[in-house]
Every structure is written in structure tokens, then in C-alpha cells.
Amino acid sequence: MLKFIVRPLLALAALVAAAGVLAQDDFPNRPIQLMVAYPPGGSTDIGARVVAAIAEKILGKPIVVVNKAGAGGQVGWTDMARQKPDGYFLGYINLPATNTVVLDSERKAIFGIDAFVPIINQVLDPGVVWVRADSPYKTMQDLVNAAKKAPNTIRTATTGILSDDHLAILMMEEAAPGAVFRIVHLDGGATQLKEIMGGHVDVAFDNVGSIVPRVKSGEVRALAVMDNTRSKFLPDVPTTKELGFPTVYSNSTRGIAGPKGMPEPIVKKLQEVLRKAMDNPEHIKKLEDQGIAIKIMVGDEYAQYFADAHAKAKKYTEWAKNRPQK
Predict the structure, then answer these.
(1) How far is CA 97 from each of CA 5, 214, 312, 316, rounded to the nearest angstrom?
(2) Residues linked to residue 225 through DSSP beta bridges, in sequence order
(3) Is the pLDDT of residue 15 over 50?
(4) 217: exposed, middle or buried (Cβ count in 10 Å: 0-12, 13-18, 19+)
(5) Could you tell me the fold of the domain covering 126-250?
(6) So where are the chain's domains?
(7) Is 220 helix (H, G, I), strand (E, B) or coil?
(8) Which residues does residue 221 pair with via DSSP β-bridges, in sequence order?
(9) Of 136, 123, 139, whose CA–CA distance to 222 is shortest?
(10) CA angle 264–265–270, rounded 5-degree value
(11) C-alpha triplet 114, 258, 268: angle, nearest 5°
(12) What pLDDT score was predicted for residue 4?
């Protein structure tokens, strides 16, 4: 009797396995969603829409960018962690913000850092400090001096709690003893821009790719790039290292990942297609026109960067959480 049960079960298992292989070979056979965990209009969203438009021509199926903003990216990453790992739902991971959501126990994230499969990195965007063009702060030193003279009064925006921007503010306070900023956490670069241009916030700790066109148009003034070398997109803006703050070093990477458990053949195909799209001259030109620096990483290189970013974020998250409140 047992053999009459086992044989059909084995046959069914074989059919399921064969269907799985066929599904992978046929991938994709329907549209793919590409999630951005921030509102439309920010630099992550811009990069996503450029690469999606090129990659979908290579794949032959639509790649639909969807924005799932909230809680500094946590809403979108939670949604991605819950998705079926079949390659039809991908999303941007923003390091170190994705790391710090996991590391901050108060956030109560339902996912760990191993919930995602890193596929390919697109951007490494240095940090920048900027103000509205009519701001009284003409230089970084003006801003630091004002933050010392009137602590906790200068409204300073981030793109989320324990984002790279938030950590950069803490680094600046550490590097300039006595300077204390009134931190305002927002949900993305587009909101940050709106709040500053509306006069509701005084200064932004942000990323170069968010503001290059507006610096060139004269709408905003960049005070410092938080890097060791000047940005080719803002060559006249000094670095924090030049200004005597060498420990204030900040950037954000943006790459594409999927839910844990994605089949290796699908991951490899996506890597090939997305790399081809990112190497496309149209992609390079459109991102560089926005001042967004491309840094492609795949495979072991991206996985190692992901792990290293997590270790670094752990250090700074613990520092931020244990830092005395001012």
C-alpha cells in the first residue's frame, strides 16, 4: 500500500521541480515591480526610474517603479521582506539606512539584514551640507559658529532616523564641540527639499545627487561635501576634510536587492541585465546630469560591501543610541 502512496508523491515532487526550472528559464513572463522605500522625486527614485526604463527594454517586460515610503525606509523594506522570492518583486536597499533600521531595537524591524539578497549596487553618493540660497550661512564655518552660539535652535533636516544624514550630523557635533543642531527627521530627499525651500527647516545634511541641478541653478548653496576628495559634480565646494573636520565622512549607497530565497539563475539573469542597463551610456549620462555618482558592484564584491556597511553601521548606531541627549 505504501508504494502506491509514495510513487504518486515522488511524481508530484518531480513535476513541481520541473515547473520550478521551467519558471526560471521563462523568467520574466510578467511585469517586475521595483520598490523605492522613499517618496517620488528623491535621488534614489530618479536613479531607479532611469535604470528601470533601460532594463525593461533588455528584458522585454515592464519594470514598474513603486514608491512605498514611511518610517525612514522601514515600510518599504518590510514589504520587500514579505514578498515571494521569485524575482518579480525587487527593491532598493539604501546603506547605511537599511542597516540601522535593523540595528535600532526601538524600530522593532520584523526583518534582519539576511532577509535580502543583494543583486547589484548602482550608486555611491557622498554626503553634502546645504542651505537655501538666501540663507545667512554662507560657509560651513558660519553654520558651525551659529550652532555653537545658539545650541539646539538651527533646524537641521535628515532623510530619516539613523540615516547616513542623521549620523553625519552627530559626527559634525562630535567634530565641533559645542555645536548642537535641532534635528528634524523627514521621510526622504524630496520632502527635505520642500521643507527647506518653504523656510520650515534651516539646513540639510543630504547627498550630492539630491541637489546638483539646484546648486547650478542658484536655488541652493552647498557648504561642504562630506568626503575626503571634492565631488566632480561640485568642484568648487570644499570637503569637510579641507575644512578641518576629517572625521565627518558620510555617503549613501543605493542598490537593488530581492527577498531571501531567490533562485540563483534568476539572480544571475537580473545581475546581467541590470549591469548592462547601468553600463548603458544613456544611464550614465542621465545620472551624471543629476550629479549622481555611479558605483557598480555585483556578486561577492557587493555582498562584502553589504557586510562591511553593516559592521560600520552597528558601531555608529550604538554610538548614537548611547550618546547623551543635549
Answers:
(1) 51, 24, 12, 11
(2) 128, 239
(3) no
(4) exposed
(5) D-Maltodextrin-Binding Protein; domain 2 (3.40.190)
(6) 30-125+252-321, 126-250
(7) strand
(8) 131
(9) 139
(10) 95
(11) 105
(12) 53
Supply the Cα-derived Rg of the chain in whole angstroms. 22
Torsion sign (Cα): 165, 129, 140, 132: negative
Residue-averaged pLDDT of the chain: 91
**3-class DSSP state of 7:** helix
Residue showing cell 517618496: 39
What is the spatial distance between Cα 221 and Cα 98, in angstroms, rounded to a whole number?
29
Q: What is the topology classification, in CATH, of domain 30-125+252-321? A: D-Maltodextrin-Binding Protein; domain 2 (3.40.190)
pLDDT greater than 90 at residue 132: yes
Question: If you average pLDDT over residues 163-168, what whole number do you get?
Answer: 92
Q: Which residues pair with 155 in a beta bridge?
A: 182
92-117: pLDDT as tens digits:
999 999 999 999 999 999 999 899 99
